[in-house]
Model the fold of this input.
Amino acid sequence: MKKIIPAERASRVTYAIRDVVVEANKLKAQGKKILHLNIGDPNVYDFVTPAHLVEAVYTAMKKNLNNYADSAGIEEAREAIVKEAARDGIKGVTKNDVLISAGVSEGIEMAMNALLNPGENVLTPIPGYPVYSAIVNKIGAVHNRYNCIEEEGWQPDVDDIRKKINSKTKGIILINPNNPTGALYPKETLKEIIDIAREYNLLIFSDEIYSKILLDDDRHVSTASLANDIPILTFNGLSKNYIVPGWRVGWMIFSGPQELRADFQETVSKLARSRLSAPGPFQYAIKPALEGPQDHIPEMNRKLRQRRDLIYKRFNEIEGFSCTKPKGAFYAFPKIELDIKDDKQFIMDVLYKKHILAVFGSGFGYPKPDHFRIVFLPPMNVLEESLNKLEEYVKENYK
Done:
């Protein structure tokens, strides 16, 4: 029998956030304590799932609601999402315009599969969440990345978006608040991008999974609230805002003129039917999450603001780094102002010598080897220890 050769498109798939963990686990096996600044999972740190959501899922399981759900999601959950969309200013949405997925990642993959033929592209931000690049590779589409401007708080470069559009471009992806930079996009920027989508007949993917994690007095604006004359696909879920990433509860909302999106929406629905359903019992947490107590959100944001302020201050004090201030989510994307040639090797060296685990910037599509992403979910003492060790590392290895 001949050796089994994997598909070329699958062999190109990488996911930096998880890939760096492989080396960290080797050190753990040697008894080393690792300071984790790499994964955006609040439950790994000192954030706890709201009790009423746990009770909702437990009750559903006790009632034996462990069957396959409807492929689009259970009805009460979709109705709750419709009400949430209305609160966010998205007009004209019905329960038939909502599809519940196994996390936002599954929804993104179904939507990109439904939209793109091999050789076609959607505009994706750099830096940006690597699941988009992974899906592009998996489905045989083409990478088409637009810049975000560090000097402007990592805002999308609207001129670059326009320049990158070609005959094979089908859509524009927005991540707001952004992973990995923590940027929050103002209404004016979103309107400019909507105008481009309208001009070139492009579908907007608006990934808003961090919509309630806001670190200052800013307000999150849902892209679809600013236009109802073009198709927009809004992604959200419980993972981050409601501290349940392991439950894999996400959703997408189709909005805009029905006649423009009907065929695409039905294709996404076919893909949803082919995978049966998202996990059923966890969907019973959606209604109590969106309509029940929200006390954990201001408390979570208070803790994250304190931690954001610490890392922002220290990264701009430690010689060899600078950092733009994150406005949302729980990530920062510091710049390395040292003489390095390879950002991945830099991160690996910090891991081996100081046992700090972060993620190299090129893993988020960033073209220059001079950034990395850190998560500021850990408690203050862990962040302080990490920053002190990072400062030691620079003093020991760079003049």
